[in-house]
Amino acid sequence: MDFSGKVVLITGASSGFGATTAVYLAKLSAKLALVGRNEKNLLETVAICEKEKGFKPLAIVADITKEADVERIIKETLDHFKQLDVLVNNSGISKSGGIKSLTLESYDIVMNTNVRGTFYLTSLAVPHLIKTKGNIVTVSSITSSRSIPNMTVYTMSKAALDQFTRNLAVELGPDGVRANCVNPGLVETNIVSRMGYKDDQCNALFEKMVKDTPLGRLTEAIDVAALISFLASDLAKSITGATHSIDAGRYL
Fold first, then answer.
1. Which residue in 190, 235, 246, 247 has the most C-beta neighbors within 10 A?
2. Where is the Ketoreductase domain (predicted)?
3. Pick from 157, 174, 85, 86: which is nearest to 119 by CA?
4. CATH number belonging to domain 7-246
5. Domain-wise residue ranges, the chain
């Protein structure tokens, strides 16, 4: 895969899948616009990417729940690079809880980040992706098609992203723009600890998952980054509207 001359915009790039994907694509010569809320972590990702090929990514500190920030993300990317070839929608947040316990405030936090912000950013990116015959890769989750106790709003948000992707594929296909989803299972990233799990709880959860997984291993962030990169590349020119599970067979 070669991304020479391609401009890739990645949200949630200060940690987890976003940071790993940024480094992976930097090795493939992509020009990167990296978005994150944590400036310190985002700049660390930028520095790692720059070491790979000597190209310094554009760092954009922003919150996709804020409309002005979303508009600024697109403006700064286009002002800097003059084009956009790939949008990687990776920003995401989770709040544990079900209908008996989750507050409306928590619902809004999850949906505004995972769905509303993603929808608005994508809508602003589309005219520029049409110009380059580019594509969109959205990070969803295997839970989009599973009922998970105490994960009601998170799973709802991910199901929405899957359907959003299918609609994008149908609507934008005639314009030469592809859209796909990557649906990871449980991966050892900091999103689990952000949900309130302590280190020993995380370790116990991971150990149980490995035992219950056909391949006997957890999916790693680098695996997800490789799949995102493949779908964003010209090698996947006939793939659109698809959701791609990557969970080591856990949910079979």
1. 247
2. 6-180
3. 157
4. 3.40.50.720
5. 7-246
